[in-house]
Amino acid sequence: MKIGFCAKPDQAAAVAAAGFDYIELPVNFLAAMTEQEFAAVEANLKAAGLPAPAFNLLFPKSMALLSGDTADQVIAEYLHTALARVRRLGGRIAVFGSGKSRNRPEGMTYGDAFRRLADVTRLTGAVADLYDVDIVIEPLNRTETNMINSLGEGACLAAAAHHPRVRLLADYYHMVLENDPAEEIDRLGGITHAHIATEAGRRIPLALDEGYARMFAAMKKTGYQGLLSIEGKSDDLAADGPKALALLKTMWEEA
C-alpha cells in the first residue's frame, strides 16, 4: 500500500525527502491560484519527483453549498477550474470533506439538507467524470460539520447521489471521535481512499495503536488496493516521516 502525506505545495520537497510515496494537496488552495502560481506548483512537484494522486479540501469555506445562495452553475464553474488543475497534476481522487461548505444552515431540516447535499454531490460527480477523477465523501466529526458524520451516513449520501464517480473515504481520526467502528468499512462494502492521524492532537502516527490494526484489518477484508494518506501534524517531518512509514507499513502487513 502506498502511503502519502497531506500538505501544502511548498512542502513537496520535505514530503519527498521524508520518504513518502506521494503528496495529497488541497484543491481549494490550488483553485484560487493564478496560472503563474499554479505553474510554479507543477514545477516544484516535478523537481521533487513526487506524484499527487489524491487531493483534499474540495470546496472553499466561503462556498455555502446548502444555503441556496450558491447556484449550481457557480458550483459547476468552480469544479471545472478546480478539477482541471487536479487532473493536470495527475490527480485521480478528490476528497469531499469541506465541513464548513456542507454545513446545514440554521432552520433547514436535515431531510432538506440531505437532499440538497445529494444533488450537489451528484453534480460534483458529473463534473469529476469529465476529468477522470473520483470524488470520495469524507465523514467528519461533529465539531467540524453537522452533515455526514459517520461512514453509514457517507454511504447513504453516495447512494443518494447515484453517480459512479462518487465513493467513500474512511478517516481514522474522525471515526474515533464519532465512535464509528472499523467494522463499518466491511459492512458498507469497502472504501476508495483512507486518511489516518492520532486521536490525540491529530498528529502523525508514531506508536502502535490497536485502532489502526482494526481499521487495517477491515480494509484488508474488503481487498483494499487504494492509498493511505497521513493527515496529521508533525513538528519534524524529516524525523517523524520515516518512523510513521515504518510503523504503518508493518501494521498493514500484520493486519
Strand content: 5-15%
User: How many discrete structural domains?
Assistant: 1
Cα-atom radius of gyration: 17 Å
CATH topology: TIM Barrel
Question: Helices and strands: which structural class?
Answer: alpha/beta
Any overview of this molecule?
This protein has helices spanning 12-17, 27-31, 35-48, 72-88, 110-130, 151-161, 172-177, 183-187, 210-221, 237-254; strands at 3-6, 22-26, 54-56, 93-96, 134-137, 166-171, 193-196, 228-230. It is α/β, with parallel strands linked by helices and 255 residues long. The chain has a single domain, classed as TIM Barrel, CATH 3.20.20. Strands 1-2-3-4-5-6-7-8 form an eight-stranded parallel beta barrel. Helix 6 links the parallel strand 5 (134-137) and strand 6. Helix 4 (72-88) packs across helix 5 and helix 5 packs across helix 6.
Keywords summarizing the entry:
255 residues; alpha/beta; TIM Barrel; 8-stranded parallel β-barrel; 10 helices; 45% helix; globular
Topology:
Blueprint (H helix, E strand, L loop, with lengths): L2 E4 L5 H6 L4 E5 H5 L3 H14 L5 E3 L15 H17 L4 E4 L13 H21 L3 E4 L13 H11 L4 E6 H6 L5 H5 L5 E4 L13 H12 L6 E3 L6 H18 L1
Parallel strand pairs: 1-2, 1-8, 2-3, 3-4, 4-5, 5-6, 6-7, 7-8
Helix pairs in contact: 4-5, 5-6, 9-10
Provide a quick synopsis of the model.
The protein has helices at residues 12-17, 27-31, 35-48, 72-88, 110-130, 151-161, 172-177, 183-187, 210-221, 237-254; strands at 3-6, 22-26, 54-56, 93-96, 134-137, 166-171, 193-196, 228-230. The protein is α/β, with parallel strands linked by helices.
